[in-house]
Amino acid sequence: MPRIAYFGPQGTFTEQAARRLAPGHELTPAETISAALAAVRKGEADAACVPVENSVEGAVAATLDGLAEEDPLVAVAEELLPVHFTVLVREENAPVRTVASHPHALAQVRHWIERNLPGAQTVAASSTAAAAVAVQRGEYDAAVTAPVAVEHYPLPVLATGVADVPDARTRFLLVQPPGPLPAPTGADRTSIVAAAENRTGALAELLTELAFRGINLTRLDARPIKGNFGLYRFFIDFEGHLTEPRIGDAVAALRRRCNNVRFLGSHPRADGVAPTIAPSAANEDFTGAADWVAAVRRGETA
Ligand SMILES: O=C(O)C(=O)C[C@]1(C(=O)O)C=C[C@@H](O)C=C1
């Protein structure tokens, strides 16, 4: 049975995502995102589940950096979870002076804390569940956690359904070493990371290759290439699957323009949204045009 490492400890949002992405599989918590990815690279796990993007706080930097560096890992599936929090406290009816959680979680409840726990100091923990562990140990007064955390860390509940932005969501990836791609579904996402050259227009050229082929971006993030001040990697997600002619054509063009391109996966979108295809950008347009060139080369038409 495949073994799945996930960003833990038990009771994180990531564990919930892993249970949905790999039902019935053996799940092992890792303390950090990089430890979850390392477990796959070392062969201790077959796949890892990690958060990648939140609708309020944006990209999860540790995941982007972890996928761009070291041996390649490829996303084969994604999950989208609604994010609202439960606030657990050390002691019922006691004053709350410190509130711990993952920085992404704290950013999503900033206003709630200002209104409900004025003056409380926020403290970054490695994950929402790690914050609950720290509260159990008596290190902090409260933890902002996933709703499932209370099942693992039976602390008094101060509030449930906490979220500054009601429709907040986090997207999670299941990543594994390169292998056969998941089959295209018609509602897929492809991800790459490219270290564009440091010259005028280099990023615009990459994006134009996608725009020319009518490919809609779903995310664009920049992360610094460490040790090279001012140099960035660009994480580009777009609609479509690598096996589609229009996407394969675009990814080949990106590779031609920038040999520092890494493929990060093509997999079904969790929201099932299919792309709107621009005029002349359908796969049949690409294959039809290539067939015509082939016929011209054979001297059969002009
Ligand atoms: O700490 C957790 O529970 C996580 O799974 C991490 C994480 C994140 O990285 O964004 C996941 C979802 C929430 O947005 C808050 C924290």
From TrEMBL:
For this chain's UniProt record, which GO biological process terms are given?
L-phenylalanine biosynthetic process
Q: Which organism is it from?
A: Prauserella shujinwangii
User: What is the protein name for this chain?
Assistant: Prephenate dehydratase
Keywords, in A-Z order: Amino-acid biosynthesis, Aromatic amino acid biosynthesis, Lyase, Phenylalanine biosynthesis
Q: Where is the Prephenate dehydratase domain?
A: 3-177
Pathway annotation:
Amino-acid biosynthesis; L-phenylalanine biosynthesis; phenylpyruvate from prephenate: step 1/1
Entry-linked InterPro entries? ACT-like_dom_sf (IPR045865), ACT_dom (IPR002912), Chor_mutase/pphenate_deHydtase (IPR008242), Preph_deHydtase (IPR001086), Preph_deHydtase_CS (IPR018528)
List the catalysed reactions.
prephenate + H(+) = 3-phenylpyruvate + CO2 + H2O
